[in-house]
Design brief:
- This protein is of the alpha+beta class and 372 residues long.
- The chain is built from 14 helices and 7 strands.
- It folds into 3 domains: 39 residues, no CATH class; 100 residues, OB fold (Dihydrolipoamide Acetyltransferase, E2P) (Beta Barrel); 178 residues, Orthogonal Bundle (Hypothetical protein af1432), CATH 1.10.3210.
- It has a 5-stranded mixed beta barrel. A two-stranded antiparallel ribbon has the order 1-2.
- The two termini are 50 Å apart.
- 30% of the residues are buried.
- The N terminus is likely disordered.
Length: 372
């Protein structure tokens, strides 16, 4: 056996050792050894998921059988008109989400996973009321220990920012250093350094703009870029504006739960991110001790006023140019993100989306030749 064949052999032995075979086929050649797996089960027993190419949600096509790793965002037991139990699911990965149903073996499959779990799924894609849905045949809770060797990566099952969070963090550090006022720069650096681990993966919201992994970083970085461009046009305090950009939503680290599926914490429901953000900034100012009182009050005002309007749950309205510009930049970046997502996720053919989006109107996707 030459080195090439020996390498193939040991690779095959390593890969197949933990699996159960239904059938296999060997093809021998003097110079190569090929092992073809026709069908085998992943760990998990009778209803575990057979290993096939992994298909992300945005590649689903009507009539195809698929297998992949997803987040079970919702799980609801329901009954048909005939009284039969079924499971109504929402599955999600970083490319999108889809409605799914379990019609058969409902009770046995239901015991294998819960809402909020990453899951390995095999099923059939079909069209229902002009939208794709997945009929689940096999499902099992996915862990790195059981499924990592088959391609499962937690980063693949939740929507995430397109930019690498490590690169975004590096740029944010550079922008923080651009804050010339030493008190503001020290305050922002203190809070960001202390919360780095959570900032790298946290969303900017639960169900609105940038509501995906690393969405918080993406949002504040985009706002900071905009702020640097337009601050000179309106003769505002650029240092104060940048500090407001980086700290206005910092309370969302405590308002929103981390993990695969985002929801509100008790503190978030009771108090909300605006007040929490202000509290975190006040705590940081106290630690620095020499922070100027008047500068601190202005920054607190910007945080309390960044929603801009009372009907948007803003405790205050912007009362200085920096606060107003912060509010407008925040709203601009949030709305553009919502429109980008609506255009990206729409499944309608033609130049226009349907009305099922944040704006509740058809949105122009561009001519077909412009989208190719």
């Amino acid at each position: 056996m030459n080195d090439q064949v020996r390498n193939w052999y040991f690779t095959v032995v390593y890969l197949v050792s933990p699996v159960q075979f239904h059938a296999s086929r060997f093809l021998f050649h003097p110079n190569i050894f090929i092992f073809l797996l026709l069908d085998f089960d992943l760990p998990g027993g009778e209803n575990s998921v057979p290993m096939k190419p992994i298909t992300p949600i945005n590649k689903f096509k009507d009539g195809e059988s698929i297998q992949g790793f997803f987040l079970c965002a919702e799980k609801h037991p329901r009954f048909t008109r005939a009284g039969d139990l079924y499971l109504d699911l929402v599955l999600r990965d970083r490319t999108g989400q889809i409605s799914a149903k379990i019609w058969d073996k409902v009770e046995s499959l239901s015991d294998k996973f819960s809402a909020g779990d990453p899951v390995a799924v095999a099923g059939d894609v079909e069209s229902f009321q002009d939208r794709l849905q997945l009929i689940v045949k096999r499902i099992n809770r996915a862990t790195v220990q059981s499924y990592g060797r088959y391609g499962y990566d937690p980063a693949l099952i939740v929507p995430a920012a397109e930019q690498d969070p490590k690169y975004m963090w590096k740029e944010i550090k550079t922008l923080i250093r651009k804050i010339r006022n030493p008190h503001l720069r020290s305050l922002v650096a203190l809070i960001y350094r202390r919360n780095k681990k959570q900032l790298l993966t946290h969303p900017a919201s639960v169900k609105m703009h940038h509501n995906y992994r690393s969405g918080f970083l993406e949002h504040v970085l985009s706002m900071a870029r905009i702020g640097l461009e337009i601050a000179p046009l309106y003769q505002v305090n650029q240092d104060l504006l940048l500090a407001g950009v980086f700290l206005h939503d910092i309370g969302k680290l405590r308002e929103i739960t981390p993990g695969y599926e985002f929801s509100y914490t008790d503190e978030g429901n009771f108090i909300g991110h605006i007040v929490i953000s202000r509290d975190m900034v006040v705590e940081g100012i106290r630690e620095l001790k020499t922070f100027p009182a008047e500068l601190g009050i202005k920054l607190e005002h910007m945080i309390l006023a960044h929603q801009g309007q009372y009907e948007w749950q803003s405790p205050r309205k912007p009362a200085c140019k920096e606060a107003l510009l912060l509010h407008l930049i925040d709203n601009l970046d949030a709305k553009m993100n919502l429109m980008d997502r609506a255009l990206k996720e729409d499944q309608e053919e033609g130049n226009w989306t349907d009305r099922r989006n944040y704006f509740r109107i058809p949105l122009f996707k561009g001519n077909a030749e412009d989208r190719t």
